[in-house]
Amino acid sequence: MKKIVQIVFVFLLITSCSEESDDTTTQANITFNFTHNWDGTPVSNANFNSIQYTNANGEQLSITKLRYLISKFTFQKSNGEKIILDGYNLVDVSNGTDLSFTPTVSIPTGNYNYVYFTFGFDNDANYNGNYPDLNSASWSVPSMLGGGYHFMQLEGKFIDNTATETGYAYHAIRAVDNSKTPQEFQDTFFEVDLGAVTITNNTTFNIEMNIAEWFKNPNTWDLNVLNNMLMPNFNAQIMMFENGQNVFSLKTVTP
């Protein structure tokens, strides 16, 4: 009888320790760093305002402004469970600000088979007035174009087909067709898949944007034709959406 009692006690002790272990999950802080290049050549605001890049259509150009919005950072497990980190970040390369973003919420360590973020806002978030900081940053889209917010502002100058230095404004928003009543919209936000990742400690994702990709794949961009007034241009917005699929890549993941 004494032996039976000892065995039961050991079993209860093991069970108790196991339950305590299950209840204790290590948390990790996540940081996203964004760097930029032109087909491999690093780009920062120190390189702005000088015509030194050539796009896929052969036009020489400069960059004078680059800002873009990222949101909905998501970690998905193999069973489909998702952890969505609150917050968004307006990456402002022009001023060299917010090139790094650390969500306020940590996540459990472990294996995640799908990590991604959203370029722009999805439709649940893309409403005027929701974000005072974006309003003050002149990031809103006019109501006549459906409201909401920009996804990107890329501006500069290029040498046109008359050898004249001409401005361009490559602004990405949700596509709207004002030729139809009521207005017709098409989603142009997209998810950037960073692949499978194992989180064992605080982790930094180093992400690159190849700016040249906005002008070349799958649509070779002709700045002589598409340089300004692109926000109300439904087809141009769809082309931007298509070209954006190849813009971002994961460079490294560091603990």
TrEMBL record:
Residues 1-21 form the signal peptide. This is MbnP family protein. Keywords: Signal. Pfam families: MbnP. PROSITE patterns: PROKAR_LIPOPROTEIN. Residues 28-224 form the Copper-binding protein MbnP-like domain. The keyword Signal applies.
